Amino acid sequence: MLRFDDVSLHLGGRAVLDGVTFDVGPRDRAGLVGPNGAGKSTLLRVAAGLQAADGGQVAAPRGAAVGYLPQTGLALAGRSALDEVLAGVERLRRLGVEMEALLRRLDEVPAGDPAHAAALAEYERKEATFRQHGGYSLEADAARILRGLGFDPDAQGRRCETFSGGWQMRIALARLLLQAPDYLLLDEPTNHLDIEARTWLEGFLGRYPGAVVLVSHDRFFLDRVIGRVVEVRRGKAIPWAGDFTAWRRQREEEWERLRTAATRQQREIAEVERFVERFRYKASKAAQVQSRVKQLDKIERISAPEAERTARFRFPEPPRSSELVATADGLGKTYGEKRVLEGVTFELFRGDRVAMVGPNGAGKSTLMRLLAGREGADGGHRTLGHGVRIAYFAQDQADELKEDATVLAALAEVDPLATELRLRTLLGAFLFEGDDVLKPCRVLSGGERNRLALARVIARNANVLLLDEPTNHLDIDTKEMLEAALRAFTGTVVFVSHDRAFTTAVASKVLDVRGGGARMFQEGYEDFLWRRAREAGDTTVRTPGLPAPDVGLIGALAEAPPRDAPAAGPVGEGSAAAPPRAARSYEEVKKARRQREKAERRVRELMAAIEAKEAQVAALDERMSEPEIACDYARFSEIQRARDSLAREVEAAYAEWESLGEDLATEAGAEP
């Protein structure tokens, strides 16, 4: 197991880690939790050997591989995304090249030559290692992992330097997952993932054969992945059994017990101290006073846990707007030759809390900018209601801060008439206190920058909030405060977030953006996911408190019907009626159904073929391990070639099967 033994580390005179001791078993799923700055990332870097500890040690089993994904700081270039991922298993690929060289040597050396037997033995040893580590399916596995993280086949062939920093982090994560180290250390792997990719990663880590230690501020993700919590707090690491929700419950119960015990002890100490003070100078009570003094000296004081500092804020009561806040009427947007949005039509009403969802690249951020008036539409128009005041939080909002401006000046920029006391009060709610407000923005952490950006949104006193990924880099406590503030806000909110728990807690409606269009659903996020799971064919029985199945999030989710389809679900008061969809002709319907039936037959054929071929591959593997075959180079080579050919056919069948499955799911939304 991976053992942290009395690990200590001081930075800038502060004890970041102070005698940290705990173990990680070979199949553990452990989540490091704690506030920003508690030392979680530092602990992972020490475990990865990238930062030396002042004391103690981290010991891994002999020969165990430890893999680490940092939060930021990676810059990839010079290779395609697929090649970059495969570069992480270069030793295994070289082993394949060595096997090919040995096969050529066996062709050249006569069977009776001692060199032939030696080469055959070496080939068998290398081939066993190659097969054991998945060498025959490396490229297929790499492509499958990249696909799960959101890279289509075209994107897999693009050079790394053409991707943004967030997508490069996805490539680095894919490379690490393909390497499959014994101990996988992930520092906020969900920061740059959309909900679909997070859901895929949940499933992958659930099946991962090694141990996983991760830091994440996504509560839903933690509950789905981890089986134990290591709480990093004030330099210490405290192991707890159970997932994130169980840890919170257990910790609160433990803290309440300690508070009660500390209060009771303080009362008892106070009573003893009063006795001592009262009879200190009375000779007849001297023995009793001395006994009480010794009693006080022996008491082991119980320290009641102190609550961590967390953001405490709420949105001010906004100026009242008209009932109909905004109308999008046939909005369209094109970049170059790419048509991102076309004919988008919906309405927003006062008090709506709308989660904008959809696949990565569907146009959510583009639509948000059109609503905010930051970009002009190429078609259609946006109409605002009376008295509407918009505050827009962009994905890169924190990057728009002037690097040399102080925190106080950055807030004053959006509310120049506010007094310094008012500005400091608002900043204090976001944990900027005292001289913190005089820090230049360039020294702020990612979480601090996002908190400041949120404070700037609040300072605008708007009645319509357009928030594009406001939860990035926020710790869990701050996310929960933002949830509560948005639920209490009496204005209108439209937001994009890849945090499922946050989206579920805040949204009262869902705007599904995909295929260039958008549909408004008059229901919360979990209701929306249950609906889409049903559309994708899932038959799970719904029970109170049970989250929707993942089938609606990981590729089986059908594309939304065309832009002009009517809004689905119950239509609430004030809902806009969408124009009816143009009906397809009978011949078009028949043709589409024939094509679907043909594809379904092909899927069944492929599954039968895959099962048969995989059985043949397994049978050939067994034959190759038989002593009489292993000693006969000619027969061994013949079986090896047959086995490799079948393995390639299986991979091709799987690729075709996955492609057909996606096509069928996409076509499901177009059925009349």
Distance separating the two termini:
57 Å
The radius of gyration is 31 Å
Which sequence of strands runs across the widest sheet?
5-6-7-3-8-9
- Structural class assignment: alpha/beta
Number of strands: 18
Please identify, by name, the CATH architecture of the largest domain. 3-Layer(aba) Sandwich
> Beta-sheet strand percentage?
15-25%
What is the CATH superfamily classification of the largest domain?
Answer: P-loop containing nucleotide triphosphate hydrolases
CATH topology (level 3) name of the largest domain:
Rossmann fold
Major β-sheet annotation: 6 strands, mixed
What is the approximate shape?
globular
Low-pLDDT residue spans: 555-587, 667-672
Quick structural overview:
It contains 21 helices and 18 strands.
Describe how the helices and strands are arranged:
Elements: E1 2-11, E2 14-24, E3 29-33, H1 40-47, E4 55-59, E5 66-69, H2 81-87, H3 90-108, H4 114-132, H5 138-148, H6 153-156, H7 165-179, E6 183-187, H8 195-207, E7 211-215, H9 219-225, E8 228-233, E9 236-241, H10 244-279, H11 286-298, E10 324-335, E11 338-349, E12 353-357, H12 364-372, E13 379-384, E14 390-393, H13 407-412, H14 420-429, H15 446-459, E15 464-468, H16 476-488, E16 492-496, H17 500-506, E17 509-514, E18 517-521, H18 525-535, H19 586-624, H20 627-630, H21 633-668
Helix pairs in contact: 2-5, 2-7, 3-4, 5-7, 10-11, 19-21
